[in-house]
Amino acid sequence: MFARAVRPTVSLARSLSTSSQNNAKVAVLGASGGIGQPLSLLLKNSPLVSHLSLYDIAHTPGVAADLSHIETRAQVTGHMGPDQLDAALQGCDVVVIPAGVPRKPGMTRDDLFNTNATIVATLADACARNCPEAMICVIANPVNSTIPITSEVMKKYGVYNPNRVFGVTTLDIVRANAFVADLKGLDPARVNVPVIGGHAGKTIIPLISQCTPKVEFPADQLAALTGRIQEAGTEVVKAKAGAGSATLSMAYAGARFTFSVLDAMNGKEGVVECGYVRSEETECKYFSTPLLLGKNGIEKNLGLGKLTAFEEKLVADAMDELKSSIKKGEDFVANMK
């Protein structure tokens, strides 16, 4: 239902070429990394951004200097090391967090937990102190746990606003759109597949039945397509053969989500993106669904919509893993010294 009711912003090119002006300060935490550099490049290209604040523990001055030579309006500042983290975040409207270590072959997203949990908790702490009202967009995996971590840290400071903390699952939607378009010979810019649940393996639930335009697949092809969308990240990890995980497509997806948040903050109506957020839609505390975005973050959670029996089973099968990942994140913050 909602897939037809509100057309999402599906084209990144449209966001890059938009003529609307905005004075938004956007921080990228992890700006020197495999996702951070191309993400920062895409953000620098956008007239929606007036100040691009780049932070990482190494190499940020070089990335900032390089990007600052691009002939677009965003002012670029580079901040390196923990001493400069607070300065990077002061006055930010949106914070995007691709920081953390990538997967290598044979690793699950959960294998990243110990390293990335600490990184995300540290960065969320700095956000809570320096820009408590910013939109926080977390890319760092495992997203199913890093969003509960971010939320619990913000709660400790009394500044948690569930409408402003997002797990960026957009790459799952981007992949679903690309794969469906390829199979059906469609223009991918015209395809929109809602993807709900979480952002790892079987918690990734593409709702092919709600795709616009309407598409149909035989049961075996639908199962294979669903499996490919769920394991697409591993497909890239294997193809890169130890040289990292999905960085370029993730940067594209992260930029798309950030532009949608900025468009909505600017008053654009009808902006819909899926995101992993605090939710009352299922028995899980956090769950990704299509969200109507507004000036203050989530304006309305559009829910799961009408599911097929196949999709209902996918949701049921995801619940235990999602709950376990959420608890793992909450416990991590509870046990922090």
UniProtKB/TrEMBL annotation:
<feature type="domain" description="Lactate/malate dehydrogenase C-terminal">
    <location>
        <begin position="169"/>
        <end position="333"/>
    </location>
</feature>
<dbReference type="InterPro" id="IPR022383">
    <property type="entry name" value="Lactate/malate_DH_C"/>
</dbReference>
<feature type="binding site">
    <location>
        <position position="109"/>
    </location>
    <ligand>
        <name>substrate</name>
    </ligand>
</feature>
<dbReference type="GO" id="GO:0006108">
    <property type="term" value="P:malate metabolic process"/>
</dbReference>
<dbReference type="InterPro" id="IPR001557">
    <property type="entry name" value="L-lactate/malate_DH"/>
</dbReference>
<dbReference type="GO" id="GO:0005739">
    <property type="term" value="C:mitochondrion"/>
</dbReference>
<dbReference type="InterPro" id="IPR036291">
    <property type="entry name" value="NAD(P)-bd_dom_sf"/>
</dbReference>
<dbReference type="InterPro" id="IPR010097">
    <property type="entry name" value="Malate_DH_type1"/>
</dbReference>
<feature type="binding site">
    <location>
        <begin position="139"/>
        <end position="141"/>
    </location>
    <ligand>
        <name>NAD(+)</name>
    </ligand>
</feature>
<dbReference type="InterPro" id="IPR001252">
    <property type="entry name" value="Malate_DH_AS"/>
</dbReference>
<feature type="binding site">
    <location>
        <position position="116"/>
    </location>
    <ligand>
        <name>NAD(+)</name>
    </ligand>
</feature>
<dbReference type="GO" id="GO:0006099">
    <property type="term" value="P:tricarboxylic acid cycle"/>
</dbReference>
<comment type="similarity">
    <text>Belongs to the LDH/MDH superfamily. MDH type 1 family.</text>
</comment>
<dbReference type="Pfam" id="PF00056">
    <property type="entry name" value="Ldh_1_N"/>
</dbReference>
<keyword id="KW-0816">Tricarboxylic acid cycle</keyword>
<dbReference type="InterPro" id="IPR015955">
    <property type="entry name" value="Lactate_DH/Glyco_Ohase_4_C"/>
</dbReference>
<keyword id="KW-0560">Oxidoreductase</keyword>
<keyword id="KW-0520">NAD</keyword>
<feature type="binding site">
    <location>
        <position position="250"/>
    </location>
    <ligand>
        <name>NAD(+)</name>
    </ligand>
</feature>
<protein>
    <recommendedName>
        <fullName>Malate dehydrogenase</fullName>
        <ecNumber>1.1.1.37</ecNumber>
    </recommendedName>
</protein>
<feature type="binding site">
    <location>
        <position position="175"/>
    </location>
    <ligand>
        <name>substrate</name>
    </ligand>
</feature>
<comment type="subunit">
    <text>Homodimer.</text>
</comment>
<feature type="binding site">
    <location>
        <position position="103"/>
    </location>
    <ligand>
        <name>substrate</name>
    </ligand>
</feature>
<feature type="binding site">
    <location>
        <position position="56"/>
    </location>
    <ligand>
        <name>NAD(+)</name>
    </ligand>
</feature>
<feature type="active site" description="Proton acceptor">
    <location>
        <position position="199"/>
    </location>
</feature>
<feature type="binding site">
    <location>
        <position position="141"/>
    </location>
    <ligand>
        <name>substrate</name>
    </ligand>
</feature>
<feature type="binding site">
    <location>
        <begin position="30"/>
        <end position="36"/>
    </location>
    <ligand>
        <name>NAD(+)</name>
    </ligand>
</feature>
<dbReference type="InterPro" id="IPR001236">
    <property type="entry name" value="Lactate/malate_DH_N"/>
</dbReference>
<feature type="domain" description="Lactate/malate dehydrogenase N-terminal">
    <location>
        <begin position="25"/>
        <end position="167"/>
    </location>
</feature>
<dbReference type="GO" id="GO:0030060">
    <property type="term" value="F:L-malate dehydrogenase (NAD+) activity"/>
</dbReference>
<dbReference type="Pfam" id="PF02866">
    <property type="entry name" value="Ldh_1_C"/>
</dbReference>
